Amino acid sequence: MITEKEIKDKLKEVVDPHTQINLVDMDLIKEVDVKDKMVKIKMTLTNPACPLADFLVSKVREKVKELKGVEQVLVDLVF
Asked: For residue 73, what are the β-bridge partners?
């Protein structure tokens, strides 16, 4: 089964275009929950009005789906 560490390691590949820092190191990934082949992620943004919100959420989904055994990724934005 996929682990939270594997997911966070993969999410280090998602870099904020403005800061050039990955989302994990920016502490934007708040919670990761794995159930079977589904991953739920709670993340935040540097600003609730962030113009890159859709882009970043899409990249998070894309990267996590690259992991073997993951079929579904749900991303919730929390503030």
From this structure: 39
What does the pLDDT profile of the chain (79 residues) look like in tens digits?
Answer: 899 999 999 999 999 999 999 999 999 999 999 999 999 999 999 999 999 999 999 999 999 999 999 999 999 999 9
Q: Is 22 left (phi over 0), alpha (psi -120 to 50) or beta?
A: beta
What is the value of pTM for the model shown? 0.94
CA–CA distance, 56 with 60 (Å, rounded to integer) = 6
The conformation of residue 12, written as its DSSP 8-state character, comes to T
User: Hey, where are the domains in the chain?
Assistant: 4-77
- C-alpha to C-alpha distance for 23 and 1, rounded to whole angstroms: 23
Assigned fold of 4-77: GMP Synthetase; Chain A, domain 3 (3.30.300)
